[in-house]
Amino acid sequence: MTTAVYLEVGQKRVFACALEWPGWTRAGKTEHAALESLADYAERYAPVVEQAGLTFADDAGDELDVVERVPGGPGTEFGVPDQVPDVDRKPLTGAQAGRLAALVTASWEVFDRVIADSPAELRKGPRGGGRDRDKMVRHVLEAEASYGRRFGLKHRPPDLDDTEAIAVMRADLIAAIHQPWAAVELDDKGWPPRYAARRLAWHVLDHAWEMEDRREPGT
Hints:
By secondary structure, the chain is an alpha+beta fold. The protein has seven helices and four strands; from the N terminus they run E-E-E-H-H-E-H-H-H-H-H. The protein folds into two domains: about 5-85, Double Stranded RNA Binding Domain; about 90-215. Helix content is about 45%, strand content about 10%. The longest helix is centred in the middle third of the chain and has 23 residues, at about 95-115.
């Protein structure tokens, strides 16, 4: 069984993104390194699929089929997948939108579990860098409020303990994924729903996995 993948290729960094699995995205210095990292993370992505109530093949990372290459931009070099592939410009059916929404929602649920299991202070990087837990969560919420502007949504970043505001903002983001293509008014900075789902899930899972990796052993 093959997994369709597209590559966002920059000069110093490459992102490998699984087409049908938003959030399953990894980077490397070369195409080979990015694909290798993506394959390595199949096992970590599997709980998201399970949480969404979907089926994920055990060998999903074994054979990756590159179906599109997208030139990277400044964001790519900075460390963010920010180029929209042609496949993400295709209209969505209701069933496809529902599947993407389920995976994004599952990504948030996995993130929430990781938060609950993580200490307030996380191990620092080799140079003493890296956000602690609450700063990382705040960063994710700020990013999601910013992402909403791609659809004309206007939310202030919610406070960490304002569960109602967080739920309202995320419900609006999910509703945007469900919009018919014709109802999405896109300018040069707008995101089609497929890409929005991909970017949302990537960002939250990237930080969920970072948080897991930076917990002290045994926590």
